[in-house]
Specification:
268 residues; alpha/beta; Rossmann fold; 8 helices; 8 strands; eight-stranded mixed β-sheet
């Protein structure tokens, strides 16, 4: 099953409630997740209408809601949207609308489509969500609307990756290379009448303090029936730690690509 495919997300939703990372680790300061949160926070304002693309179980959308006029948050995985709506009701948030939708290009038209009316959005956001929605921002956005998105970045595997138990091997890093992500932005931004304002790349260690924590990371998103129990691989992971871990544990690179773009004014 291909990671980040619709089937993969549906499998993940059947295993855990919501989209989150269940393992324990420590990511070094100066990482992309924190930078994304900081950048988005700086752009929130009471008179803005926001769309959250690939909202998962809605944590970001609900957290931002009280600082903006409205939020439309969508995801293509029904259990996530249902969890998000449940949380919205429990928290008494009234200016967020959760929508089950897929912004991917449609088979009959070949164009991406956001679940929002024409010229209704001031701020487009996506934390590790899809990227194809950018193509529809000309229609959906107001003049000078801002687009902020965070994407995982691929990199080389750890030097010790080949020593992992065969059933837990890391087949490929998540995400594209920075150069690929930049190239993928150029055409849809140009077609949307938007300009890339700034971009940043982040590469910091993510520390796993124990073999159990590493195991939880390695099995995330995998078919449960194909995952060995921890006891079956414990000795191999402990040996791996004894050979490669330092005082802070064992590190895997935590890489992110953050970009900010803006639509042109209507008269431009």
């Amino acid at each position: 099953m291909k990671p980040q495919s619709k089937e993969w997300y549906e499998l993940l939703a059947s295993v855990q409630r919501g989209y989150y990372y269940p393992w324990r680790s420590r990511v070094e300061p100066g990482n992309g997740e924190a930078a994304y949160t900081s950048l988005v926070t700086k752009h929130l304002a009471a008179d803005l209408d926001v769309v959250d693309c690939g909202c998962g179980h809605g944590a970001d959308a609900l957290g931002w809601a009280r600082r903006v006029r409205s939020v439309v948050a969508f995801d293509r995985v029904r259990p996530y949207v249902e969890l998000a709506e449940q949380a919205r009701l429990e928290q008494g948030v009234t200016n967020v609308r959760f929508v089950l939708a897929d912004s991917a290009p449609r088979a009959n038209s070949g164009t991406a489509r956001l679940p929002v009316p024409d010229h209704s959005i001031d701020l487009f956001l996506s934390r590790r969500g899809p990227r194809h929605w950018v193509a529809d921002t000309r229609r959906a956005g107001r003049p000078n609307a801002v687009l902020i998105q965070l994407n995982p970045v691929a990199g080389d595997l750890p030097t010790w990756a080949h020593e992992l138990p065969h059933s837990l091997r890391i087949e490929m890093p998540e995400g594209g290379r920075v150069s690929d992500l930049l190239a993928d932005l150029v055409t849809p931004l140009a077609e949307a009448g938007a300009k890339l304002v700034a971009w940043w790349s982040f590469d910091v260690p993510e520390w796993f303090g124990s073999p159990q924590d590493l195991y939880t990371f390695l099995i995330w998103g995998r078919t449960p029936a194909r995952v060995p129990g921890y006891d079956a691989v414990r000795s191999e992971l402990e040996e791996l730690f004894s050979r490669h871990a330092g005082p802070e544990g064992l590190a895997i690179r935590h890489r992110r690509f953050l970009s900010k773009a803006a639509l042109a004014s209507r008269s431009a």
